[in-house]
Amino acid sequence: MKLAFTMAAGRGETDRLVAALADTLARRGLRTCGLVQHNGEPGDGGRCDMDVRVLPDGPRFRISQSLGRGARGCRLDAAALEAAAAEVAARLDARTDILIVNKFGKHEAGGHGFRQLIADALGLGCPVLVGLNGLNRAAFLDFSGGLAAELAPQERVLTNWALTAAGTVPA
């Protein structure tokens, strides 16, 4: 099983790292599938918009909702995330070199989102790289049965793992 995860310190750093990796792998000719997140600049409420792009070439989905200036609850638009997951599922096949999931988040920890896609990709023999945050680490480790490799949050490390896992020689 070729399953790995990475966690970068700092708000949005894992999102940026995973998006950069997806771009690097696409330039190297790998057939990527999955999702990367791009956060907008914080608005009046101090919170950024969260958009995801389906790999390799779109579409984009806004997965955050505006709940108002004083809102404290979860801003995830679960329906938009599920629509993005369905788009990724339609693209995943045996020719996919790697599945990239920007985040195993609260939705996945609760049994939804990209959980089934991760399992489907692994069933196809496709390597999977997942971004993770500390809040959902225990749920991910439980989901993966402790079989996922933890990778340092460095683009070179992630790129080498992805190329090797996909059967391509790292440069």
Describe this structure in words.
- By secondary structure, the chain is α/β, with parallel strands linked by helices.
- It has helices spanning 13-27, 78-91, 106-109, 115-123, 137-143, 155-165; strands at residues 3-6, 32-39, 50-55, 60-62, 98-101, 128-131, 149-151.
- 35% of the residues lie in helices and 19% in strands.
- Helix 1 crosses helix 6 (155-165).
- The chain is globular and about 45 Å long.
- It contains 6 helices and 7 strands; from the N terminus they run βαβββαβααβαβα.
- The model has no long low-confidence stretch (mean pLDDT 88).
- A 7-stranded mixed sheet has the order 4-3-2-5-6-1-7, with helices on both faces.
- The total beta strand count reads 7
Amino- and carboxy-terminal Cα gap? 23 Å
Helix count, per DSSP? 6
Name the beta content range: 15-25%
What is the topology?
Blueprint: E1 3-6, H1 13-27, E2 32-39, E3 50-55, E4 60-62, H2 78-91, E5 98-101, H3 106-109, H4 115-123, E6 128-131, H5 137-143, E7 149-151, H6 155-165
Parallel strand pairs: 1-6, 1-7, 2-5, 5-6
Antiparallel strand pairs: 2-3, 3-4
Features:
171 residues, alpha/beta, 6 helices
The gist of it:
35% of the residues lie in helices and 19% in strands. The chain is of the alpha/beta class.
